[in-house]
Amino acid sequence: MLSTLKLLLPALLPSWRFFDVIAPSPRVQFTLLSTETESPHAWHEFRPRPATLSFATMLKRMIWNPEWNESLFLTSCAERLMEHPTQHSEDEIMTRIINDLRNNTQNSAMMAATHVQFRLLLVQRQGAQLHQNVTYHSRIQALHTRDVA
Amino acid sequence: MILDDAIRLTEILMGLAFAQQSIEHVKSFANEQRLFIPRLLLAVLLIIGFQTAWVIVLLLILALAILHRFQGPYNGGADRMSLLILCCLSLVHFAPTQHWQEVAFGYLAVQLILSYFMSGWVKVVNPEWRNGRALCDVFQFSAYPVSESLRQWAQSPRQLFAMSWGVMLFELLFPLSLLSITSLGIALVIASSFHFANACLFGLNRFFWIWIAAYPSLLWFQQRIFAIN
Questions:
Q1: Band (A107; pLDDT cuts 50, 70, 90)
Q2: To pair with A6 at 20 to 30 A between CA atoms, which of A48, A128, B189, B206?
Q3: Is B203 in contact with A69 (Cβ distance < 8 A)?
């Protein structure tokens, strides 16, 4: 209860520091494994953004934008994981990766996989160049023993 | 705008914003549906004006449960503004006198002004915002642009420099719009256009609806401070 009230305080006394500093940005990537001990060989970006988006789709998203808002929440979870790793943040990302994989049953790699792992890449500008660093690896999660909440 | 009308309009707009947010969770995981389907029903009760005081208290309790569920805001600033409006409206409904009602509702208006002014201030003191580099970074590598094609905007530094200063000047000068109801009206149209652009470019649709829900407090506050005195 006390921790929830602590979370409420920034809403009652907001700092309103939107975009004050453009911090390094996390990306979530996942890999599918056929055994728990297999080394990852291919990492896939989780929910890559589309190449283009029409204005009509943008207008529709004014009302109905669940997947994007969920992705923004996962970005928050990734930032939390890099600052103060918690089981909660890792579970939130892992659960959604597994859920998306299960909804994409046409994926042959998914059909063969038994485990999944994700990692976080941190994208930042150094001078004029963009750099990416791997900053976090999740646990390796069995795909078929975990119920999606 | 009189106090009662401003409060009621805030309730309706917040109810619509909450309904929009909640609908986005209806097809989500069961533990989210358990929180957001009741929230959707309460939002409808708020819009139609049924027992608004108690509905707002229930929405506040539910908001705390949602905060606990996600271990923080689900949608950053939009959730924080939602909580702020909810807390202010709760205080308004249970305030012992009209004076305290005005203090609670005025606090929301002041925070709305600060939401623009402080956002402008923290940008203008940052050299990377002043030279346009920060907005280039937003488009080039932040998590926000909704499509890859929008990342190309980072290749137009002159336009982004102008946009950066446009945003900073608007945010910093926003408090001056309270000097007249006409200037405030113009400022709120520009501000809502700004939120609309953010919703289109960065997918921040929830910000658009919840910030607009707080505007009636400012329309009342302007008249209370500048027109009556």
A1: low
A2: B206
A3: yes
Here the ipTM equals 0.93
Say what the pTM is: 0.93
Closest Cβ opposite residue A69 in set B24, B114, B140? B24
Partners of A68 on chain B (C-beta within 8 Å) are 146, 203
The percent of residues in chain A predicted with pLDDT above 90, rounded, is 65
Cα–Cα dist A110/A34, whole Å: 9
Contact: A8, B67; criterion CB under 8 Å: yes
Domains contained in chain A, number: 1
Which of B84, B126, B203 is opposite residue A61, by nearest beta carbon?
B203
Any domain includes A12 = no
Supply B138's token pair: 């937003």
The four Cα atoms A96, A102, A106, A111 give a dihedral, to 10 degrees, of 110
Q: Choose among B67, B83, B200: nearest Cβ to A58.
A: B200
- For chain B, what is the radius of gyration of the CA atoms? 19
Q: Which of B85, B70, B72, B77 is nearest to B15 (CA)?
A: B85
Residue-wise pLDDT tens digits, B167-192: 999 999 999 999 999 999 999 999 99
Which residues, in sequence order, are bridge partners of residue A4? none
Among A9, A15, A18, A63, most B C-beta atoms within 10 A, so best to mutate, is A18
